[in-house]
Amino acid sequence: MSRFPARSIDSQGTDRLSSSTRTVAANASPNSIMTRVFVVVLIGLVILFVAFLVILSTSSHSGQQFSADGFERRKFSYFEILGYRLTATEYFNNTGNLENDLVKQKWITSSGKAKKTDWVTVSHTMHGHTYVSDANILVSYLDMSQPNSVINLARWSRSNPGYASLMWSEIQKMAEGNMYLLVPDIIHHTVSLSQQDDNPIKQPTLKEDESGYDEPISDLSNEAKAEATRKQEEIGKASLDPFLIELYLKAGKAAQDAQEDARARFCFEQVLRLSPESAEAKSALDQLPPAPEKDEAETPEPAAEVSSEEETNL
After folding, report:
1. Which of 35, 99, 218, 286 is most buried, most CB within 10 Å of its CB?
2. Which parts of 135-203 are beta strand (E)?
3. What is the pLDDT of residues 14-42, one digit of tens each?
């Protein structure tokens, strides 16, 4: 039997396929086209899905913010593509036990009504990169509250209430003036001060494997505790004031040379707060341009959703 399709030749000599063969060819052509279309559409959908996942992964924004008012912290997250928001910003309270204890002990102040301008972006992760600001310096120290931390500031503060009250209140001022760079200096100076023999509250020496202990002040009566705290404040002020005056003067001059007028002004103003007759600070302030007028007090932002333009300002 012949393997070739039946053919016929018309009266004009034209070679033609038989009607049955034409029918098979006609039926096969649409199916082939549909198959190709389906494959192309499927490949296109896969490409779009992969592209969507890539865009979604790179459009994720997250980070942490800090407020000098009460040392509040919060995490934020949102999605954004080509400058267009896909979701509203979600906030999650991230304030730690140490920060709450500082407010409870009245070592720092808290209005409980942080304004939009109070929030400083500590870290911001986007497009696979994380950007951090100077505020991360203070936040890193606040996170040192584990038993085996190099400097456990939560434990240290409970053991040294007089020194802690001076140190934390000054750190809050530094945070308000955006001078986070000075935080390590005052922390290490005050911690070193507490290790001196003249500390009214003797500090225990812990081994690295110890997970906790009773603070030495817990064994004192209320009267003895108050007296020891008063003596710590007296010793601390005598040591911290000249140290801070020199620190602020040095930082102010550096900021002035860098043309960071706001920081320089803040530093020289702190020198005058500690030493009102400082001619050097007064002269340095006179050389700075006038401070810009402050805007009217803003309404405190609600606890719910707020504008998040400041998230990108590191």
Report:
1. 99
2. none
3. 455 455 555 545 555 667 777 877 778 88
- DSSP H/E element including 224: helix 222-257
Side-chain-facing half-sphere of 106: CA atoms under 13 Å = 0
- Tell me the CB-side half-sphere exposure of residue 233, using CA atoms within 13 A: 14
Report the run of H or E that residue 119 belongs to, with start and end.
Answer: strand 119-126
Tell me the C-alpha distance between 311 and 124, whole Å: 7
Instruction: Count other C-beta atoms under 10 Å from residue 242's C-beta.
Output: 11
- With DSSP H G I counted as helix, E B as strand and the rest as coil, what are the percentages for the chain, rounded to 5? 50, 15, 35
Q: Which residues pair with 120 in a beta bridge?
A: 66
Cβ neighbour number for residue 60 with a 10 Å cutoff: 16
Q: In 3-state terms, what secondary structure has residue 123?
A: strand
Element holding 90 (H helix, E strand): strand 90-93
Q: What confidence tens digit (pLDDT) does each residue in 210-249 have?
A: 444 556 666 778 898 999 999 999 999 999 999 999 999 9
